[in-house]
Design brief:
Oligomer: single chain
Strand content: 5-15%
Number of helices: 13
Shape: globular
Helix content: 25-40%
Distance between the termini: 11 Å
Strand order of the largest sheet: 1-2-8-7-6-5-4-3-9-10-11
Number of strands: 11
């Protein structure tokens, strides 16, 4: 199976020529992606992150069985959301983007642990970032993705949308994404694709991604059916990823792993309350690098805490940080998707 992109835990199938969005993007996009890869391979942080992951809300309309948010809710734990269900202040977001764009920011993705479509002012978020010529991305479960909302998102300047859809089969999908209706969500995705085509937005990237459990990871039939389902909907990219097992301590599995995290050098995560972290898997907020309500993104990116964490990874000692030692990614990097 030919892959277009691979990370330690994820791969994508390339878009077929008739669905390829890359020819419709400027050379500046290719330069941005080259720098993204270069920073990750060589451990070069630059003076500013290339990308921000911003969480508009920590609320969600599903309880997916593999999601860390579901895990913590089931356990009655709240350190992932110390202020409870809450949205980001739009003014805080605008201040962050306005200050970051002139410093070299290239893209922003509008989600972390929440479902971004629940944030009522999401089109405004997208529009504000688009004014600075940023690439604006989002993951979504597509439960609330009506054709009307699809049009608003695309008119605002959304450039990349990633549909999280974890099985090609109704019964399995609905047992994983608790609260979602298989047919309705597929209709929503089809509706988005129709709106995008009607608007002639060939540069907009679309992707459907499936988290593979142990059974589906070994099944070529499941993958083939998934690919067929979304190719029929004309979704450009198809992705498959490995799951983090929430109750597993990965530290012993990482003892002999040679690894450093590329995301320390190219992206920063900003939670809905403004706290900043370096990691897509730090759901427990053990690695807080700073607070965007008090400090600039530039100051946080270049502070002592970040420098220390990067140095430990580059020296081959990522295990000196407990949160990194217990991360699933170094272990999963030794496996095949």
């Amino acid at each position: 199976m030919t892959t277009a992109y691979r990370s330690p835990t994820y791969y994508e199938l390339p878009a077929p020529p008739e669905l390829d969005w890359r020819p419709y993007r400027p050379d500046s996009y290719l330069e941005y992606r080259r720098e993204w890869d270069l920073r990750g391979r060589r451990g070069l942080a630059g003076e500013f992150p290339l990308h921000l992951d911003v969480d508009p809300t920590n609320r969600c309309n599903l309880r997916c069985r593999m999601c860390p948010r579901t895990h913590y809710l089931n356990k009655g734990l709240d350190h992932w959301a110390p202020h409870g269900p809450a949205d980001m202040d739009l003014k805080l977001y605008e201040n962050i983007i306005a200050a970051a764009a002139p410093r070299g920011l290239k893209s922003v993705k509008l989600n972390f642990l929440g479902e971004p479509l629940l944030y009522k002012r999401l089109p405004e978020m997208i529009s504000f970032a688009s004014k600075f010529n940023l690439w604006v991305m989002m993951n979504t479960n597509a439960v609330a993705l009506t054709p009307e909302l699809s049009e608003k998102l695309l008119e605002a300047g959304l450039t990349d949308i990633f549909f999280s859809f974890d099985s090609p089969y109704r019964a399995e999908y609905e047992s994983i994404r608790l609260g979602a209706d298989y047919g309705k969500v597929l209709d929503n995705i089809a509706g988005f694709m129709a709106v995008k085509e009607k608007m002639g937005l060939k540069h907009v990237q679309t992707r459907a991604s499936m988290v593979l459990d142990e059974g589906s990871a070994e099944s070529p039939e499941i993958k083939a059916d998934y690919i067929r389902l979304f190719r029929d909907l004309k979704v450009a990219e198809i992705g498959f990823g490995l799951p983090t097992v929430m109750d597993r301590d990965y530290a012993p599995l990482n003892e002999k792993v040679n690894f450093f995290c590329p995301d320390l050098f190219r992206r920063m995560f900003i939670f809905n309350d403004g706290l900043c972290g370096p990691c897509c898997g730090d759901w427990e907020r053990r690695l807080i690098m700073g607070d965007a309500t008090r400090s600039s993104v530039a100051d946080i990116w270049n502070n002592e805490a970040y420098a220390k964490l990067r140095a430990s990874h580059l020296s081959g000692d990522f295990k000196s940080e407990p949160a990194c030692a217990a991360c699933s990614v170094p272990h999963l990097s030794t496996m095949n998707v």
